[in-house]
Amino acid sequence: MKFFYKLSFLILLFINTANYGQQDAQYTQYMYNTVSVNPAYAGTRGVLSVVGLHRSQWVGLEGAPRTQTLAIHSPISLGRVGLGGSVIQDEIGPSQESYFTADFSYTIPTSVEGKLSFGLKAGGRLLDVDFSKLTVEDSSDDRFQNNIRNQFSPTVGIGFYYHTRKLYLGLSVPNLLETEHFDTTNQNVGSDTSFLAKERINYYLIAGYTFQLNDDVAFKPAVLTKLVFGAPLQLDLSGNFLLYNKLTLGVAYRLSAAFSGLVAFQVSDSTLIGFAYDRETTELGNTKFNDGSFELTMRFELFKRYNRLLTPRFF
Q1: pLDDT tens across 75-117, in order?
Q2: DSSP string, 38-85
Q3: Inter-CA distances, 123 with 80, 101, 174, 194, Å
C-alpha cells in the first residue's frame, strides 16, 4: 500500500497544478499501432487493417496506468485517399480518459517506390475523475467533493509519412489544441484552486529501415521520439528480426526508463499477434510492487484474392 499512497500523491500533484509532462498513451509496439499517433499512416498498408492493443503498465502497483486501443484504417479512391479511426481508453488511478478520433490521409507518389502522405486527425476526449478512489488527508477539501464526469475537449492533429519498400519516416502532432481542464462543478471556476490540468502538445518522430539479410531473415531497426516541451525527451530504440516471414523477435530500449522484449507471430496472411514486456530501469522497477509492463497486440487485415502478400509488410 505504500506505493499506492505515493501514486495518489503524484496524481494529486497532477490535479492541482498545470501538467507539463507527457499525456498521450505510451506504446512499446508502436510499429503496429502507428495510425494512433500519425493520421498520415491511414491507408498506407494498402488493405483494410484493424489493430487492437492492451497495455498494462507497472503490473502489481495499485492504480497503475492501463490502455486499450482499437484502430481501423483503409485506402479508398485507388489508394490516394486513406480513412481511419481510433478509440483509446487510458486509465491511471482515479482518472479515466477516452479518446475518439477520425483520420484522413492523402498520398502523393514521389518516385517509383517512394510515397509521401499528408494526414489530418480530428475528434475529442472525455475526462472522468473519481476522487473517492483517492486517499485524501483533508476529506473536507472542496476540490475533492465533486467528481469530474465526461468533461469534453476537442482534438485536431496533423501528420506526414514518407515510405518506400524498405524505409519509412513520419512526423506528427496528434493534438494541436492545448485545452485547459477545470472542475466546472467547483464554485471557484477560473481560480487557481479549480485548475486541473492543461493538455500539452506531443510531437512524434518515427523512423525505420528494413535490411534483407538473406532469403529467410530481415532486420528492422526503428526509433520513436516523443517531445513535450517542459518534460524529458522520450526516445524509444528497437531492433526486430523477421524470421521466415512468420516470427518476429526483437528488443527495445526506452531512454532512462525501460528495456523491452518483443515477439510477434504472423498466424496467417491476415492475422498477426504480438506481445511485449517492459522492465523498468528506474528505482520503481526494482521494487517488489512492480512486475513490469506488458502489451498484447492483434492485427487483422482483409485482403482481396489478387493482392495477398507473398511476404508480410514489416511496417
Answers
A1: 997 779 999 999 999 988 778 889 899 999 999 999 999 999 9
A2: -GGGTTTTSSEEEEEEEEE-STTSTT--EEEEEEEEEEEGGGTEEEEE
A3: 22, 4, 10, 26
